[in-house]
Amino acid sequence: MIPDVKLNGKSVREMGWIRENIDFPTPQSQTNTIVVPGRNSPIRYTEALGRVSYQPRSFTIVLSMLGTRKQYDQKVSELVNQYAGKLIKVIRSEETDVYALGTVEFVPVYDPLLRKGTITLECTDGDSYFYHVKESEAVISGSGTVTLQNDFMPVVPVVITTGETAFSWRIGEDTYEKSVSAGTWEFPEMELGAGENRLSVKGEGVTTFRYREGRL
Description:
By secondary structure, the chain is mainly β. It has 1 helix and 20 strands. Strands 2-1-7-8-11-20 form a 6-stranded antiparallel sheet, with no helix packed on it.
């Protein structure tokens, strides 16, 4: 397989570039500690909101091509005009089921002796998580128990009901209940954790759950 990367669904290889290198380091956790005189350990706020939050993801992509300066400038112009400073989805050929999201800037360099040009795509404000390309969906008709499988990233599903429907679920030691009419709903309390999430549904209509999973 020839290494490739897609920007908003468009292959850079098909645009005439060779992917030389990519670097997608794992984002660091957001940490804040306070050293108090007289204490032997600092006060840590890494999980102050109940979970670990992460710094923006930074990544770089190095592309190259062989050709004249005119050909190189034309290819650079195509890239810069389409993507510079814009929020884009980046999919690597090694993991085509997830994408990174962020804005990119470009650093072009041309070597006239080698007749080789490179351009580096740099992102410093990417979302912490890789998002699944395909949105997850679960459908239940009538009453029953539905299991929503989720990757690592916490997510609140969009719930679509076609009739009067009642929901109940547990998160830790807490139990939640909701009753709604036909429509589209989002309940902040219905946040899905990693793994299996079970909910009880009571109603006569069709209930659809949609959500996008993610991982570091």
